[in-house]
Amino acid sequence: MIAPDHLFYSLLSKEVYASGVVKSFPAGSVIVNIESYIKSIPIVLSGSIKVCRTDQDGREFLLYYIKPSESCIMSFLSGIHNDTSKIKAIVEEDAEVLLIPVEKASAWIREFPEWSDFIFTLYQKRFEELLEVINSVAFQKVDVRLLYLLNQKSALFKSREISVTHQQLANELGISREAVSRVLKQLENDNRISLSRNKITLL
Fold first, then answer.
1. In the chain, helix, strand, coil percent, each to 5?
2. What is the pTM of this model?
C-alpha cells in the first residue's frame, strides 16, 4: 500500500482508493507512451518508474524517476489538458501502481487543498530535477554524469550492485554505448567501480 504522508491523512485518502485501480507491472512495462492520450494518472505504491524522452531513432533519454508515493507530473499535465504524452514511462523495478482517472485528478485540484499541495510540490521537484538534467548535459563530463546515474540507481534499488547493461546506460544518458564502455573501464581502473557481466558494483 501507499506510504503514509500528509496527503493521505484526510478525506482524500478514501477518495483516492475508491476512485483508483491498483495494478501490478513487471520491470520493463511501458505504462505511458509517447503520443498516447493519458486516461489515468499513476501514483507509485511500490517499485519505481523511469520517465524518458525518445528521439526519432527511438533512443531514450532519462528525465527522472518516480518513486513510491510519487506521481508523474507530465502525465498529469497532458491528461488534464487532453493532450498527448510527451514522455515515455517505463517500469524500472516491479511496481504496484494506483491509477487515478484523469477527470478525478483534475476535480480534486478544486476540492482538496492536500491534493493541490501534492501536485505543486511534485511540480517543483520535477522542475528542479529537469534543471539538474540540463545542467548535467550542458556542463558536466560524461564520467560525472555516469557516476551520478549509477548512484541514482544504487539508491533506487538499495544496493551497490546494479544490474544494468552498457546499452541501457547509454540510452538513459543519450550517448553512444562505446562512450559508456570506455568511461566505465576508466572508472574501474580508478577503483571507483567493479565491472562484471551486466552488473556494476560501486566501490
1. 45, 30, 25
2. 0.76
